[in-house]
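Exercise 3.2. Students should predict the tertiary structure of the chain below and write it as structure tokens, then compare their answer with the key that follows.

Predict this chain's 3D structure.
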Amino acid sequence: MKMLKLLIILIIAFALTATAFGQEEPTFEGVADCQGCHAGGPGGNQIPFWEETKHAVAYDSVSAFVQQTARCLECHTTGWDTTKANLGADDFVTVEEPYDGSFNVTIDDQEEFDKKKNVQCESCHGPASDHIAGAFDDPRVLPPKDPVLAETCGSCHNTQHHPNFDNWLESKHAVADVNANPFLQNLFRNDPNCSGCHTFQGFLEFVGDTPADTSNLVPNIAEPPGDAAYPIVCATCHDPHDTKNGESQLRLPITDLCVKCHNPELEALEEGDEPHNTPSVIFEGVGAFQFDGFEYDTESVHQVLPAIQQRLCATCHVFMTEFDDNGTPDDPSDDILANTGHTFEPRIEACQQSGCHVEGSGAELDIDPGSEFDFDHRGRQTTTQTLLDSLEAKLANATGEDSTTQAFSQALFNLQFVANDKSRGVHNPDYAFDILRHTITFIDTALFTSVEPIADDIIGIPETFALHQNYPNPFNPSTTIRFDVPKSGHVKLVIFNSLGQVVETLVDEQLKPDTYEVEFNASQYSSGLYFYKLVSDNFTTTRKMLLLK
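Answer key:
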């Protein structure tokens, strides 16, 4: 045994000598070699902060099973690589076959092994022997490993109990700096505003090294990264060296982090600007145009649930699920939470465990997971989408004169405001409903000049109310509807689908006695039977029409 250890030492010594002449693999030296520069020295003060992280105790804090199992130690030690003699942790242990077995590691040299246990600087930054002071322009990037790349984190954070990297690859964060439209991609990477939230480098400048003011929600960075940009990688949201915002090592408090970018920057918007990324303000119940004479419900139960107040966006969008810890599916006692959720898609389970939609609460979810409207509880999402479609259609049918008015601009803002929330009302259902339905009512009564009397002296003033058959019928995509008004009053002409749902309100205004015509454009609707209803004073009548595409 002594001869074997001596042989190992000789091999390592040879490797060290060869490395000195640049002939062999770079070697791992351990965190002690980094302290001279990175513990208050010229390279910064990263190590004292790192010592408070889970990386610093990745080996020391785990079970005997992990400490003695080779496949686990690949990610709980530094420099582990059984294909190379590089002074990594595996060079000081014996691994019994099979390699993927359990409890198969025996430490041969405890003193040397201890220098390489846990996840140290070199696990992310590469072997220290490759680090020549001043050789690299960016101190965060040390070949052969680049700690900025998500793949560096993903080499370990992609196992059964934390499949973060595969999750992230499915997310929009992974492609935040690219776009099929070259103009938009250029903005993401080079615009001082856009790059602050579409690139890793821009976000770090936006947040700052010691982020104290979380109220600044408008990025305006001095040095956009251009084509050197990284997307929103792990290190964008997670600080590899610091636990000031909890064990997840977030760069901002969890209630402030997502809001930093997922907000429409209301303070910086100018007239005519589109409000994009509106989830945070919809959730709060602020930001939309509110018209006089209408009541708006800005409060939501989501705002007051303790589970959501503590974590806000992460409550539903970074949801932790259980996995089987020891391969015993019939024994839940050893199951632990997996760090999943980095696709950032909301999870049904989050609703069920929020304290609101629990069994027996009377608010159980009546939804169809996997459908187009995954969270359509009590028809909230489909109702919101119907209102969005109706408002969009009305604005599309506006005249050139109408589209130049302030009312049109405000209505368009509200349409974009709700649409760019992307949740179809889930974040704050009543507020989204009120914004859309009140906007529709407002423009129906105060904006459009879409109905004009027919200039025909022969017809004269009608003696009775009448609603004529549309023409052509069947139609595609437009048809004309004529109606008679014998006396002044408020007149309403409404289109319904075959389910009785309002599709559009073509007329909703005061009209004088005359015969009128109005066009119905159904280009955005599907084929089928529709109804149109005329209402005025004590008169109501309905007719059918058929859309064939």
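Discussion points: The chain has a mean pLDDT of 84. The chain has 22 helices and twelve strands.
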